[in-house]
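User: quick one - fold this with zinc ion bound?
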Amino acid sequence: MKPKFTNPFELPGKWYKGNFHLHTRTSDGGVWVEDAVRMFRERGYNVLAVTDHINTNDISGLSDKKMIVLNGAELHPPFHKRVNPNVEYHICAIGLKHGQPFPRTFMRNVQDCLDYIHKVGAVAIIAHPKDVSLVPATEMVGLKHVAGVEVWTSLSEIDMDHGDAEKEWAECMDRGMFLAATGSDDAHWAPRHGWSEVFGAWTMLKMPSLTEANVLKALRTGACYASGGPTVKDFRVVDGKAIVKCSPVTRIHFKYSGDLRLNRWAKLSKTINGFTADVSAWKWVRAVVVDAKNRKAWTNPIPVA
Ligand SMILES: [Zn+2]
Ligand SMILES: [Zn+2]
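Assistant: Sure. Structure tokens for the protein plus zinc ion:
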């Protein structure tokens, strides 16, 4: 099985920086919507989705030419396989209308929830699979109408030491389910965390222009990558060779199904900014780059041939 994603590095357009998971005082966040938007704008973000628990916000007038604000909500349907009826998904629905009704039925069933998000034209991202309740790949595989998964969630890392869900994401791919990798900070602005989760994870989107429709399309088609630090400048396959170029890092991994990988490491105290390797024996390839502070970026998988 091959990913159906388009390779964003081969698409025309520009890169835009986004965060798709954020709480405000509308639910359990520590700041008002307007203040959250201002801080992300000042930080240079271009896309921000406000995803309070089971609530949308009035975001009218908050977008400008440089940053678009999307409405969303974080929803909590139970596991469909009922591994444990007390555990639930957290799903960020991106692109809802303000005042969107949330029918009770979908909170009882994850697929109903995902179908509803799809029906109203929004996009579903599975949030922090390793926080709150562990969502194994076996639970996620087979779900329809889900576009992406948070591979890196900075609040989960700070709060639970569980921010990195690459393993669950990779296990989904091993089972033929390809989800777009996203990075989100899940900012709650709690004083006990010192706001250190804020700006700690993001998603880069390749788009022809900054519109809500383009943002949702980029998530649906995988025209994005997740990061907690490094910048990926190029990633493609030419004549069976994978090529990645990135900001200075200390290691680069090309990965395929199972545990197959090819690696390049910088010498002690040095950095590297690219890697080329023959991956012609693989069906698809993805790249993970890691900087000297152990911050990572994850590309989506692209077909080899
Ligand atoms: Zn959550
Ligand atoms: Zn959240």
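One thing worth noting: Helices lie at 33-42, 110-119, 137-140, 154-160, 166-174, 212-221.
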